[in-house]
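pls read this protein.

:::
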Amino acid sequence: MSAASRIRAVFEDAGARGWLHATPLDRPGDTVEIDADVIVPMASVYKLPLLAGFCRLVDDGAIDPREQIRVEPADRTAGPTGLSIMADPVTMSLRDLAVSMMTVSDNAAADVLLDKVGRDRLSHLLRDFGLQQTRVRRGAGDNLQELLRRTGAGDPDAAFAVLADNDRTDPAGVYDAATASASTARDMTQLLRSIWTGEILSAEQTQFVAATMAHQVYRHRLSAGFPYDGVRVAGKTGTFGALRHEVGVVVLPDSSGFAVAVFTLAARGDGRLPRVDAAIGEAARIAVNSLR
């Protein structure tokens, strides 16, 4: 059975539709693919192209990563981690906001950075990176406002409860890639490979991205497929309702590296979907093993 067939079976067994692209960093012509060119809402994976754009602007001298930003509680985007849950004003540098955005998927930090980079400027940068199907249309705060509008809920917790209620039909358009920040699995591995090989960022900023992503605290998706001390995984997750994603770079003990992007849409919208999380890691493991 081919790797693609085995991966499709993994997604089916987990009760999810899946999109995948995997490629060795040094052999971009070798791939494992599952509907890799389908445009999918990114959820918090959009923070990776945002980080890449931020780092390019640092390289260009357009942004000082040491600039201190004061973030007031009333101005923060809601979320379960980082600045979003802090009670008092916080002052941080832009680069530390980027670290919080990537390591704990801090929504408040991400929106501060997106405002600093600017959506139009980020759009130009992504085109310059060669990402033809990637659009960052809005940040976390705007995503929440759109979810509140579509669900009619009074607060974010109530809105997500609507998505998690499997006895209700999901509100129309809530997973619509045409209006959300969206990309393809192929675009995401292209971005990862371009970063890791030093094609789009300086050596300093390349190292910053790699080190930051290696410190991501969530280890239950891609990393779950490689439970060995000798394997290093640097990734970025994305979660929104029934969407469960992770993109990242897997480096094996022999130093061979692989860019992997796995997007999933589960049949259920429960807040916790451990079988889908595990399927992401298993799909990545099959893909990487077949490419070794």
Summary: The mean pLDDT is 94. The first strand starts at residue 16 and ends at 24. Strands lie at 16-24, 32-34, 40-41, 68-71, 90-93, 182-183, 232-240, 243-251, 257-266. The longest helix spans residues 274-291.
